[in-house]
Amino acid sequence: MKEELEQILAGLSDAGCGNGELRKAELLYESGDMPELIRHFRQCRCRRMEELHESQRRVDCLDFLIRKTRERTEREPRRQKP
Questions:
Q1: Contact 29, 37 (CB under 8 A)
Q2: In sequence order, which residues have a C-beta less than 8 Å from that of residue 41 and are 6 or more positions away?
């Protein structure tokens, strides 16, 4: 049982979960409330997905800047440095 809890906590930590999420999982596991533990896992997953989508939005912004800058450099002649 202790080994299983350690694996769960290690997995959550590897997934980027914080101390509060780890502690809640530990308490739920120790109480034997597996349906609530699964619900907690799903909530943690949703938070990680939100973080992923936010990172993707930031990458999309950078892609836009790259594309616009590339288009500009292809339209305009290269400037000489003074």
A1: yes
A2: 12, 25
pLDDT given at position 7: 97
- State pLDDT tens for residues 15-62: 999 999 999 999 999 999 999 999 999 999 999 999 999 999 999 999
Q: Domain span at residue 22?
A: 2-75
Please give the model's pTM, rounded to 2 decimal places: 0.77
30 found inside a domain: yes
DSSP letter at 14 equals H
Residue 82 domain-assigned (yes or no) = no
Number of domains in the chain: 1
Residue 68 is assigned to a structural domain of this protein: yes
